[in-house]
Amino acid sequence: MSAVAVEQRTHHQAGPAATRARPGPWRITFDTNPDDCNLHCIMCEDHSPYSTTQSDRRKAGRPKRLMGIDLIRRVMEESKGRGLREIIPSTMGEPLLYRHFDEILGLCAEYGVKLNLTTNGTFPRRGARAWAERIVPVTSDVKVSWNGATKATQENVMLGSNWETVLDNLRTFIAVRDSHAARGGNRCRVTFQLTFMEINVNELPDIVKLAADLGVDRVKGHHLWVHFSEIRRQSMRRSQEAIARWNAVVDAAHELVEQHRLPRGDRVLLENIFRLDVDDVGDIAPGGVCPFLGQEAWVASDGRFNPCCAPDALRRTLGYFGNVNRASLYDIWESREYKDLQANYLQNTLCQGCNMRRPADS
Question: What is the DSSP code (8-state) at residue 199?
Answer without folding.
Answer: T
